[in-house]
């Protein structure tokens, strides 16, 4: 073993350090399978003190560190580029007792979203963020990218669920911001700074999460539209409606793929589908029926009042994640757009894809209430320079429509070259100054955000 591996083994225990090439190869590839890096070691600390000690060892040894949680990043945010040490948070799985009175729970950064949801549900509460990758995504990774998801229109992004945190900083210290008050306005809001920093300023080790009451009634519907502008206009109305719980866009190409490969067919026709869910203490079914009487709806919407019917409707949306890789790794674009630009972007993006990758199938879905959309190119075989050319062209198109090149997945390493399309030079310089203040040598997550 090298001196670095010896020091890591003495810090966390030899059983939690690996330099096995096969292990490292499996950990150095991104979730989509498109992007691969190189690492020299994997270390799995079990406490915040061990995380801090690992950071100190790596910094003093001149080794770069890439932080990994559930490794569901879609922008190569956990792919090492500098023969890094991979620091996994998978052993930070402490899950505290739910405080029902204060509606909060403290959990380790390696706890999965599904585990948090189960704990909240068992206490008669709910957690405000939901993702299709709930069984593998960890709350530490979700906080690092300020993830959104299926319930953002009601509860907000991950940052709005975080009441406090613990983080191991690049200098080897541990910062704990565990405030017991619900509105903490003392000094700098370091929690807000660290959430969404994509692991560049520190390694999140523990989070205090806000929980919410469970609405007594819920109703779900899917409506079909032939015109995307009409769907977007309906989405504006639903977005501002009391009790909105979810508002999801899905195109017919995605629905056709789920029907073909999974047997999950859309219950309504139309080029575009809108999934709406209302949740309230009083039954919102009549209110939903009134709201669905909008121009552009094709035929009768499908409505789910009972739990089983609601699950069937949700399956239409959630099955999309399972079909994106049916023909190899998809090429993914996670974007944020003004609502008025969504229809024109969809048309222009389809034309752009046809120009660069004729056989690819563009699939568009996402959170229409916020304009956070996921464009996935299924059956996209482009690699190398051709892939980079298409990616750059798509980023340019997003910016031309007034959008941001990153929405809820973060910048990672995949989008760092396009950061200037969404941030001014002064903005980027300020972010670099913050990074330098926390991490003067730049050894922590060095591939993320900046080149």
Automatic annotation (TrEMBL):
Q: Which organism is it from?
A: Mycolicibacterium fluoranthenivorans
Q: Which domain of life is it from?
A: Bacteria
Q: Does the keyword Flavoprotein apply?
A: yes
Q: Which UniProt keywords apply?
A: FAD, Flavoprotein, Oxidoreductase
Q: Which cofactor does it need?
A: FAD
User: What is the name of this protein?
Assistant: FAD/FMN-containing dehydrogenase
Is Flavoprotein one of the keywords?
Answer: yes
- InterPro entries (alphabetical): FAD-bd_oxidored_4_C, FAD-bd_PCMH, FAD-bd_PCMH-like_sf, FAD-bd_PCMH_sub1, FAD-bd_PCMH_sub2, FAD-linked_Oxase-like_C, FAD-oxidored/transferase_4, Oxid_FAD_bind_N
The similarity comment for this entry is: Belongs to the FAD-binding oxidoreductase/transferase type 4 family.
The protein's GO terms of the molecular function aspect are:
FAD binding; oxidoreductase activity
GO BP term, pick one: respiratory electron transport chain
Which residue ranges does the record assign to the FAD-binding PCMH-type domain? 35-214
